[in-house]
Design goal:
The complex is a heterodimer of chains A (about 450) and B (about 220). With about 450 residues, chain A is an alpha+beta fold. Chain A is built from 14 helices and 18 strands. The chains are: A alpha+beta (about 450), B alpha/beta (about 220). The interface between A and B is medium-sized, with 24 and 29 residues.
Chain lengths: ~450, ~220
């Protein structure tokens, strides 16, 4: 039967090659779509890296995960609070800060991080507290428009424009709640020692030039989550409710000037910095190297993964819960791959119908000899499956070759390349086979139903 | 194995309906050699195709030994043809893409029998085509093709051989050779052999002759 099938393929070589080629193209597209996460992890989409400030987050304090939540404590106090960790900012009654001495990245650490192989830029987290309209706390962030452009911040802009070189007292604000106002007035506390003094506030008038919206699955809200305090009839009360503080982005030069005035010239030391790497494939390698320099270095996808769970728990209330959704490129790649498979399967069905029509005599003879309908259907389906596997293997091999070269150039571990290749090969070949068999079922059934004597009499 | 038809009627639904067989009842004893003859259109081929399970009768019964053939499902019929019936057709019906040996081995492969090629070569030797085993049908003469078809029909050692006009497309010498082969195998191996033909050479052979006219046994 194999010989018969093989010679049948050769006899109708043009159609067989068309079927193989169509499946090969579909397999190549599918393999490419599957390989996308190798180079662009879903959580390392532009939005996440733009918000975080890089592909790897280097932190002065380890981020508390579920296993380390005991490292964080709610510290009640009156009016002033210790908070030289600018991730979290005080309210009027308390602050969320790590137990033990807070710390910041030293300039030496920042230099060593910048010198790591694969790191093209270090983006310190320029952040300080401020009060927005109605006394609502906001985080005032200094943004470098050049680095923002490299991180793809423009993709987050919902209205207006991102910050640009030459901007002065301009701001881009969170537009998640609605259209941003044309202007914004903030009040900035004064730093005295290691304490922000909210009794001495400076007023800033900013022109709003744009509004941004953070992706739903990025960790910006974790960074800005904070406690709220309520003054009750019997005195201060703290709650365990948390909500995100909106970020207000201002040009870095403006931010540095404000910092200098608010701190009377105290040097700025960031609690965290984003490392922008040349190739996102190397983010994990860079994170590992950075961990030798700082207490915690987290690859952005991992950070998002942590945020996807109950990230920081205090009093049993999760600060953030979010659901990871596949990025647009992945979804689009999957859609294109699915369409390609469907198109290839239709070509395969047409090919098999033509092959069956051209083999009526052969099928009739086989049935007369004693081939059962199942055998005949299996022969047709087997032939379609064979063509699909051949095409699938060719298409997959072509794409995987390119992917492997890219992965090797990015110093991806050989084991991961091999395992990833095997996994994707199984998916691609399985999809091609299933699609071909589904589409061959009609011609296979038709072949099995051919009336033996009628077919033999035709010839 | 005996072969028996009881009141076989076959009506083809063409136009007002064509009655190809009309209440034909006939027995073919085990090991017998029967020639079914009659003018064109008398129902010879229809009778053989129904006896072999290639078609179903409109009415009547077909028995092979103690087994009623006309009530079998498609899968069971296929198994019956594969294991118990060998066909020889007027148009040979060899598979053009396979060699003579591969054609003869095909029923063995369908039945998943071991040593299919060896058995095929043995049969080809028996029909005098041992040297032509690797030739394709288009490289063989008509007589050689029909001898390959005879070898193929005997591959699974069937109990019944049905030959429909086996000499119809052959010259007289080749036809004589094929008839001699069918007679020899019937004699040596004891298959119940039914040959539809109006070849005078065949009719002159010893054995039973069943004459059909207008779908009825004369």
């Amino acid at each position: 039967m194999l010989a018969l099938a093989w010679r049948g393929i050769l006899r109708d070589l043009d159609r067989s090659l068309l079927a193989v080629a169509s499946v090969a193209i579909a397999a190549a597209i599918l393999a490419g779509a599957l390989a996308l996460p190798d180079g662009f992890p879903p959580s390392a989409q532009i939005g996440a890296r733009a918000i975080v400030g890089g592909d790897v987050l280097a932190m002065a304090q380890p981020l508390p995960g579920p296993a380390a939540s005991g490292n964080w404590a709610w510290v009640p106090a009156q009016h002033t609070y210790r908070t030289d960790l600018p991730l979290f900012f005080p309210g009027t009654l308390g602050s969320l800060e790590p137990a033990g001495a807070p710390s910041a990245l030293t300039s030496q650490q920042l230099r060593r991080l910048a010198a790591l192989p694969g790191v093209t830029a270090v983006y310190p987290d320029y952040a300080m507290p401020a009060l927005g309209p109605g006394g609502r706390q906001v985080v005032l962030r200094g943004r470098d428009s050049t680095l923002d452009a490299r991180l793809g911040v423009q993709h987050l802009i919902q209205s207006g424009r991102p910050l640009a070189a030459g901007d002065g007292m301009d701001a881009v604000v969170d537009a998640a709640a609605g259209p941003p106002p044309a202007s914004l007035t903030l009040q900035v506390p004064t730093l005295r020692g290691s304490v922000w003094d909210y009794g001495s506030l400076r007023t800033l008038h900013l022109r709003v030039v744009g509004g941004y919206r953070a992706p739903a699955d990025q960790p910006a809200q974790v960074e800005t989550a904070q406690g709220t305090e309520v003054v009750g009839p019997t005195g201060p009360e703290s709650t365990t409710a948390y909500w995100p503080s909106p970020d207000v982005w201002i040009p870095l030069s403006t931010w540095l000037a404000i910092w200098a005035r608010a701190t009377h010239g105290a040097p700025f030391a960031p609690a965290q910095a984003g490392l922008i790497v040349a190739n996102t494939l190397r983010a994990a390698t860079v994170a590992k190297a950075a961990s030798a320099i700082v207490p915690a270095a987290i690859e952005v996808p991992d950070l998002v993964a942590v945020a996807g769970d109950s990230f920081v728990q205090l009093g049993g209330s999760p600060v953030v819960t979010s659901t990871r959704a596949p990025g647009v490129p992945l979804a689009l790649g999957g859609l294109v791959a699915a369409l390609a498979i469907v198109a290839a399967a239709m070509v395969m069905a047409g090919t098999m119908l033509t092959l069956v029509a051209g083999r009526r005599h052969e099928i009739g003879v086989l049935k007369a000899l004693g081939a059962s309908p199942a055998t005949i259907a299996g022969m047709v389906a087997g032939e379609a499956g064979g063509l699909a596997l051949l095409g699938g293997a060719l298409g997959f091999a072509a794409t995987r070759l390119v992917v492997t070269v890219i992965l090797l150039a990015a110093h991806a571990p050989a084991g991961e390349i091999v395992l990833g290749g095997l996994r994707e090969a199984g998916i691609v070949l399985g999809a091609c086979l299933v699609a071909a068999l589904l589409c061959a079922s009609l011609p296979a059934a038709e072949a099995a139903r051919l009336p033996t004597m009628a077919v033999l009499r035709e010839s | 194995m005996s072969l028996r038809a009881v009141d076989l009627t076959k009506i083809y639904l063409v136009g007002q309906g064509v009655k190809a067989l009309d209440q034909v009842s006939v027995d073919f004893p085990p090991g017998s050699f029967t020639v079914v003859t009659g003018p064109s259109g008398c129902g010879k081929s229809t009778l053989l195709s129904i006896l072999g399970g290639l078609e179903r009768p409109t009415y009547g019964e077909v028995w092979m030994g103690e087994r009623r053939v006309d009530r079998l499902g498609e899968g069971e019929l296929a198994r019956l043809r594969l294991g118990s019936i060998g066909f020889v057709f007027q148009a040979f019906h060899l598979l053009a893409d396979l060699t003579a040996a591969e054609n003869v081995a095909m029923p063995l492969r369908l039945a998943r029998r071991p040593a299919a090629r060896e058995r095929a070569l043995e049969l080809l030797e028996q029909v005098g085509l041992g040297q032509r085993a690797d030739h394709y049908p288009h490289q063989l003469s008509g007589g050689e093709q029909q001898r390959v078809a005879v070898a193929r029909a005997l591959a699974n050692r069937p109990a019944v051989v049905l030959a429909d006009e086996p000499t119809g497309n052959l010259d007289s010498r080749s036809g004589t050779d094929v008839i001699a082969l069918l007679r020899r195998f019937n004699r040596e191996q004891g298959q119940t052999t039914v040959v539809a033909s109006h070849d005078p050479v065949l009719l002159a052979e010893p054995g039973r002759v069943l004459r059909l006219r207008d779908g009825r046994v004369e």
